[in-house]
Amino acid sequence: MNRRQSLQKMMMAGMAISVPSLTAFGMTQIQRRIIPSTKEPLPIVGLGTWQTFDVGTSNTEREPLKEVLKTLVSNGASVIDSSPMYGNSEAVVGDLSKELGVNEKLFIATKVWTSGKENGIRQMENSFKLLKRDKVDLLQIHNLVDWQTHLKTLREWKEKGRIRYIGLTHYTASAHDTLESIISNNEIDFIQINYSVNSRNAEKSLLPKAAEKNIAALVNRPFEEGALFNKVKGKPLPEWASEFDCNSWGQVFLKFILSNPHVTCVIPGTAKSKHLIDNLGAGMGKLPDEKQRQLIINALR
């Protein structure tokens, strides 16, 4: 079964229930991994909001995203990642999660993305307001912008109980060495980095270093903005994918990432419940072993 066929099956099943559910496809509970600094368990598949949640106020734009949030929470997931850089995304997450009564069930991560202490404080205060939160679960320094300045503020806010975890992010492999140097010498709870089947630089030393320093790892760009799907366009899902419980190429790509034990959670973005269900399915069942990981790599060559 390829991604399109599996999603068609999910759509048909979804017609019979108000919110798409993984149980309709023989899946039970999404796996969790601990946040090393606290041992808190976190679902291993979450939701990114870059582009997908940057919409206006009309029902036409927002209703599909409301269904996405319903689907996320009703299937045992909770991690949602945003940023002031993502346009209206923070406001949409805040508004819709409050309307649905699920705001407090979410593990909300956002970022500070500006220079200067006071600018950073103003931006973070605005994020709290938009997200409808007095406390944010994870506040990250976006793409390391003025990280030395903001790190001091984040530590102060964490001590005051305004945030639970501190993080650093980047989306390119060229920043991995810098990230590794920073986490080697600073107390951080999370990093968020790019990592995928075709972009594996993070597994060389950054992810092992994060594990050594008891730092959780979120993974962005798991599909490389759709480039991975283009590589397998027209290719049937290999029979060996069923050996680690995959029903689509999307799940193959996500399970490759999750088979690295140093990854805590992967956060693919989507604006469609049917895609979210498919993504969440990667958080269940078996994960590929080293031999199967190599099969995945070879399939994209």
From TrEMBL:
Coiled coil: none annotated. InterPro entries: AKR2_Oxidoreductase, NAD(P)_OxRdtase_dom_sf, NADP_OxRdtase_dom. It comes from the Bacteria. CDD domains: AKR_PA4992-like (cd19095). Residues 45-291 form the NADP-dependent oxidoreductase domain. Transmembrane segments: none annotated. This is Aldo/keto reductase. It comes from Chryseosolibacter indicus.
